[in-house]
């Protein structure tokens, strides 16, 4: 009993330690290559998306240096919810951190200077990306295709775990359940 309690305390301290150390991002992101359509492969539960839905994100780099963002939520009943926003690069982040704003109630929240969209990992060919927030409440595994081989998916989720994300709560996308139109 005593050993179990000590193990629980130590594992709790390790988790707190992971969550208080700074979140690392990739060194830089080529926003032109990052642009285009991404499929959500997995995500932490959040208030913006229903648990039974799946989403895509499309990023378009504008001449002004900002990024036009279009997120589309696909629900199993065939309904879609589309929201468009605007992203700006956090100075000196070399594209690895963005401040992304969407209209509505989210626009009333205070803006974080360090950004609310952190690229934690990205495949060299820009086929897979791991994106989260510095408080580790939000995390998305994105890919250019609706699914990833299990080994690649697990590799990116291991990176997220090492960074202090609670990947055991991840919702895995099942694009076969989404009606195509």
Task: Characterize the largest beta sheet: strand count, sense, and whether it forms a barrel.
Answer: 8 strands, antiparallel, barrel
The CATH topology name reads: Lipocalin
Rough outline: globular
Q: What is the number of beta strands?
A: 9
Mean pLDDT: 86
Number of helices: 3
- CATH-scheme architecture: Beta Barrel
Q: What class do helices, strands and sheet pairing give?
A: alpha+beta
Tally the structural domains. 1
Poorly predicted segments:
1-18
CATH superfamily caption? Calycin beta-barrel core domain
Enumerate the strands of the largest sheet in spatial order, edge to edge or round the barrel: 1-2-3-4-5-6-7-8
Tell me what the structure shows.
- A hairpin with a 7-residue loop joins β4 (80-89) and β5 (97-101).
- The protein has 181 residues and is an alpha+beta fold.
- The model is unreliable at 1-18 (pLDDT under 50).
- It is 20% helix and 31% strand.
- It has one domain: Calycin beta-barrel core domain (Lipocalin, Beta Barrel), CATH 2.40.128.20.
- It has an 8-stranded antiparallel beta barrel with strand order 1-2-3-4-5-6-7-8.
- It has helices at residues 2-20, 31-34, 150-162, and strands spanning 36-43, 54-61, 67-74, 80-89, 97-101, 117-122, 128-132, 139-143, 171-172.
- The longest helix has 19 residues, at 2-20.
């Amino acid at each position: 009993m005593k050993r179990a309690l000590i193990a629980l305390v130590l594992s709790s301290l390790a988790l707190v330690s992971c969550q208080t150390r700074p979140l690392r991002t990739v060194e830089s992101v080529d926003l032109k290559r990052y642009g285009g359509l991404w499929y959500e492969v997995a995500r932490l539960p959040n208030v913006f998306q229903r648990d039974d839905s799946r989403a895509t994100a499309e990023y378009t780099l504008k001449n002004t240096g900002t990024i036009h963002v279009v997120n589309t939520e696909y629900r199993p009943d065939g309904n879609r919810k589309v929201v468009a926003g605007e992203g700006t690069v956090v100075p000196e982040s070399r594209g690895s951190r963005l401040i992304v704003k969407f209209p509505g109630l989210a626009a009333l929240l205070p803006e974080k200077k360090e950004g609310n969209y952190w690229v934690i990992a990205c495949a060299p060919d820009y086929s897979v990306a791991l994106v989260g927030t510095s408080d580790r409440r939000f995390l998305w595994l994105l890919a250019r295709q609706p699914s990833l081989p299990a080994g690649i998916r697990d590799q990116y989720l291991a990176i997220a775990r090492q960074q202090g994300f609670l990947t055991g709560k991840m919702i895995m996308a099942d694009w076969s359940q989404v009606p195509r139109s």
